[in-house]
Fold histidine kinase.
Amino acid sequence: MVSRNIYLQLVFRIILLTLTAVALGFLSVNENYILAVLCLFLLILQTYFLIYYVNQTNRKIAYFFDAIKNEDFTLRFPEKLSVQSLKELNHSLNVLNEMIQDIHLKKQAQEQFYQEILKQADIGIMTINDKGHILYANPTIERLLNYHPLNHVKQLKQVDEELFQKFENLQPFESNTHQLTNEREKTELALKATAVTVDASPLLLVVVQDIRKELDEKETDSWVKLIRVLTHEIMNTITPITSISDSILRYFKKGEHVVKGADLPEEHLSSAAKGLEVIKEQGSDLMNFVQSYRKFLSVPEPDRELIPAKNVLEKVALLLESPDEPTSTKIEIQVSPEDLELYIDVKQITQVLLNLGKNAQQSLNNQENGEILLVAGVDLKDKKYIQVIDNGLGIPEELINEIFVPFFTTKNTGTGIGLSLSKQIMRLHKGGIQVSSKERTTFTLTFD
């Protein structure tokens, strides 16, 4: 409606100008100079008012946009005018100003809401530009790093030189950990980075979390599981030793007196000899158990070298297909890319893969169409991995979290040290081992 009225005003004024110009020309040709001068004056006057009208409209719109740019919503245009088109224009600008002001206030309230969430979050959050300037840092990260205010990454040098290096070298989608020590406490920090773009500027969003509590809970849980297994194994060994020793002792003592050899029945001597044999066997089992524990604690540092992944898997497959233990299980190798190389301790990783492969063979138990797949490749995070996959019976869901606990086993034989030892070896390789057992059982070794 406003644009229509302005349009009609402009058309009317232009038509009036045109008619005045025609009249000026007509009077000049007929040498009617007095009326021609009058028409010329009217033409100049109409031109001035037309320019004034257009400038007035443009000026209002320019003032309006300048006020919006400066976030000044106090600008009001008068609506009590005699010119209908200007009155409607002013009214529309005022309505638009109120709408933009309302949107602005809602945006500010929303920003304050999000800022309050970030302030109250237990996770430290900061954004860093490509020049190292910290554009935002919530109070939690300032508390975790024990520094305020945070304006540039270089300030972290005053906190911890190693922490500064990790922040400076942190890349998008990368994670890291750091133990920060000050005069008050030790803090275990987990750093995660994500790339974001704001106003066409690339930024690094860094999330910092104190994982000390989670680590303490994990450590306590691991100790509880370990002590439970140790107690179970030791009690199973010690109980028969105690029972048999008590029985033998009753043969040789009557109250406080020791029975003389001549008074001992033959069957008591025979039972005592058998009991001592059992005690010896149980003692040997306990010694083997302790040796396994010592073996778990004394894994040497890996002597790593660069070796083709295909060579490692072929060696493991050959060992699993030992002629001394014939099996109908099919073993297949897949390496992608074919020239993939791993920086590993060959002996240790072979030991891990051999242990996983034998576990897979036992789960297949000579079933028909049994298959073990040895896979090596690179995942989406550019990390190299090896997988041992079998189509056996699988691992019960209630045991999936227990299998890496030292000495835990579901077999009648063995110490239960194999998988926990494998996990220890992978930890020394700065990698990890995970398991899933749904359609197929898959053990995945990942290498950093």
